[in-house]
Amino acid sequence: MPLTLAEKLCAKAAGREAVAPGEIVTARVDLAMIHDSGGPRRVEPMLKELGVGIWDPSRVVLITDHYVPAVDAESAAILDLTRKFARRQGVEAFYDMQGICHVVLPERGHLAPGMFVAGGDSHSTTGGAFGAFMIGIGATEMAGVLATGEIWVRVPETMRVEWTGRLGHGLAAKDIMLFLCGRLGMDAANYRAVEFDGDAVRALPMSERMVLTNMAAELGAKVGLVPPDRTTIDYVTAAGARLGGRVGADWERWRSDDGATFAETHRFDAGALAPQVAAPHSPENAADVTAHGTVAIDQAYIGACTGAKLSDLHMAAAVLRGRKVAKGVRLLVAPASARTTQQAAADGTLAALTEAGAILLPSGCGACAGYGAGILAENEVCISATARNFKGRMGHGTSKVYLGSPYTVAASAVAGRIADPRALLAERSR
Amino acid sequence: MLPKNLRGRVAFIFEEVDFDVDQIIGVKNIKIQDVAELAKVAMQAYDPDFAKKVKPGDILVGNVNFGYGHPHYPPMRAMRHLGIAGLIAESFSPGYWRGEVSMGFPQVPCPGILKLVERWDEVEVDWASETVRNLAKGTSLPFEPIAQADRDMIAAGGLVPYLKSQPAA
């Protein structure tokens, strides 16, 4: 029987030939990823209660990204506990302040097509960009995974989202996802796998595909997937496969079979898409950038797993090079990982950003999660390249966060109000 | 195995769709670990006297896609500390659903629940007949069937007790 990619991945993890949507199967976990917030401080007491250690420390990646660098005694204690846990439990793949988990994991070669991965964070769907079945789970379930190496899953139905054509200049994967949130709604993919495909998707580099699967979580998805192709394999190979992130010669089988059953299929034309901006307080409030009228901003934020990878910084620099951030506006940039910072420094991107007036912040979840620097005051307005804009998430309960692509955020920083990046980019090419 | 039936008053109705549970305690309080401290900050934005009004066994009600966003544990740990025994929602966000089920927190998806109950009505969740009853009004609604694995987890009191009860492999 023809299977979807999600079904194939579940079947492999369950040691079965085939599985059907709705079936509950026990999956062997190839890799577990945990971070300083939901990781050691919450799972260790449960492991103690169970009287066990980690089932296989070589299959665990531990990353500090939420409370880095420590800003008070509490966050310092959380990081201290996390570092001690890594030593006590023998977790060798411990990345301390190297960037945000969803970016560091593939960057350091831990992901490959065909894997089943459990991540202790709600944006763990990001890993599906690599053709891995990667799910986000809470700390209690993670304790179970760390104790046993297994987790049960209900095999999800698949929603296929096809983007034909090609994205216009000044558009990005973030525009695709904000558009989908607005068009389909925040629970459109409740517990489903969302499989992204089509010419426009296949033309995207891995960093942009990761935005699609990251924000599949915004649609309520269990997992977001992009079938692996040459682009995937080149990335994974260059990242240096380690800890199970090895590319099998069989990677071409990780795609949905012809005739597989999809619960729903959506087709959109990427060429017709305009830059999207989501108004407070939900990604669902997305509309064309021009539909929002004049919205003056206090802050522009380029950060987080979904908004500050190297390609995101390149987008911002394309707009900002030779321009200045508007008076009275602050542009904050928190590169997604240490490696991103190194690469952006080497290729001149950081200089373009800072010459325009951007302030650089440490790599971490930062203001996106409401923990780090860049918090908003009462009634302040921010446009952000992050994934979520819930009430109070980035600071005061009355602050307003709009979401947009790095292009749109950078253009808005220059204009001092929410702005269409296409005009600025067109000026440049003239 | 079936969990114990729930019977209690509707202590609060979260009418927001896509409700992010972080709002219950406020984003800035997520790093608090002490459950008594969490209980103190809970519901301040919604009903500052909530802790005084709630009784052990009371139930919460939510709208569509309840728990969307960050399915952090502290908010419902605080609620359980205050005596909340379960939650009924129009529907759940999957990450939140699994997270709380693994904590052993009884929850049921019941389309139509917002029309069935008002705040402080006494309700009953009957697992055997998969029904929510409004005892104050004498009305009822079926709830959506829950996977056996979820029911077992709730009945066991959560994943940690569940794993402890499993014979060693």
Structure write-up:
With 430 residues, chain A is an alpha/beta fold. Chain A folds into two domains: 5-250 and 261-269, Aconitase, domain 3 (2-Layer Sandwich), CATH 3.30.499.10; 275-429, Aconitase, domain 3 (2-Layer Sandwich). Chain A has 14 helices and 18 strands. Chain A has a five-stranded parallel sheet, with helices on both faces. In chain A, strands 16-15-14-17-18 form a five-stranded parallel sheet, with helices on one face. In chain A, β14 (299-302), α10 (310-320) and β15 (330-333) form a beta-alpha-beta unit. In chain A, α10 (310-320) packs across α12. The longest helix of chain A is centred in the first third of the chain and has 17 residues, at 73-89. The termini of chain A are far apart. By secondary structure, chain B is α/β, with parallel strands linked by helices. Chain B has one domain: Aconitase, domain 4 (Alpha-Beta Barrel). In chain B, a hairpin with a 4-residue loop joins β5 and β6 (131-134). Chain B has helices spanning 22-25, 35-41, 50-53, 74-81, 94-101, 113-116, 148-156, 159-165, and strands at residues 6-14, 59-62, 86-89, 107-109, 122-126, 131-134, 139-142. Chain B contains eight helices and seven strands. A seven-stranded mixed sheet of chain B has the order 4-3-2-1-5-6-7. Chain B starts with 5 loop residues before the first strand and ends with a helix. Chain A binds chain B through residues 24, 37-38, 41-42, 46, 49-50, 67, 74-75, 78, 122, 136-141, 143-144, 147-148, 152, 154, 186-187, 190-191, 217, 220, 222, 282, 284, 370-371, 388, 390-393, 397, and chain B through 17-18, 20, 22-23, 26-28, 30-31, 33, 45, 64-65, 68-73, 91, 93-95, 98-99, 102-103, 147-149, 158-160, 163-164.
